[in-house]
Write a structure and sequence with these properties.
The protein is an alpha+beta fold. It contains three helices and two strands; from the N terminus they run αββαα. A two-stranded antiparallel ribbon has the order 1-2. This is Antitoxin. InterPro entries: YefM-like_sf. Belongs to the phD/YefM antitoxin family. It comes from Nocardia mangyaensis.
Length: 92
């Protein structure tokens, strides 16, 4: 979990009050949920580690299949059939 100091953010008063009431606060960006702010007591730390160790993850990645050498050419062919990309693909 990443921790930041309160002075590094600008949390509106109504959001802080909602979190104090143990309500979830959904932060939206471009009309889509970007992240959720929750009260720390809602999700207590677990005793066991979640996920894989870095060594295990690296071992899995190194044992994975290598990319197809012609993958880049295939991607370019797809892009050529679609046409030019918009300047801002996320704009509405």
């Amino acid at each position: 979990m990443t921790t930041i100091r309160a002075e590094e953010t600008r949390l509106p008063r109504r959001a802080k009050e909602a979190v104090d009431r143990h309500e979830r606060v959904v932060v939206v960006n471009h009309d889509r949920p970007a992240f959720v702010i929750v009260h720390p007591d809602e999700y207590p730390e677990t005793g066991r580690r979640r996920g894989r160790s870095m060594n295990e993850a690296l071992r899995l990645l190194t044992s994975a299949a290598t990319p197809d050498p012609e993958f880049g050419d295939d991607l370019e062919a797809v892009r050529d059939t679609v046409g030019p990309m918009p300047e801002d693909p996320w704009a509405h």
